[in-house]
Amino acid sequence: MAEITPFRGILYSTEKIKNISDVVTPPYDVISDQERDAFYERHPNSAVRLDKGKPAATDTDLDNPHNRASASFQNWLKDNILVEDTDPAL
Question: Which of 20, 23, 58, 67 has its CA 20 to 30 A from that of 73?
Fold first, then answer.
């Protein structure tokens, strides 16, 4: 039988992000490249930066959309843009 365990979610900080609609986006698989670019411009902490990063002509195995997303995620946690929920939940 599967064991289901509550966990602490990671959320945008309401102290740092005043208007959640500035940073939330549709899922990556329904966002066009033009929409992605607009979300990038809308806010520096847009979820699109984690979900559908921009490729660059200079991308390498170490510098690419996936690694940049990871770096953004870690920085946002460090800067309290994203915060861990206080209580575990499902």
Answer: 58
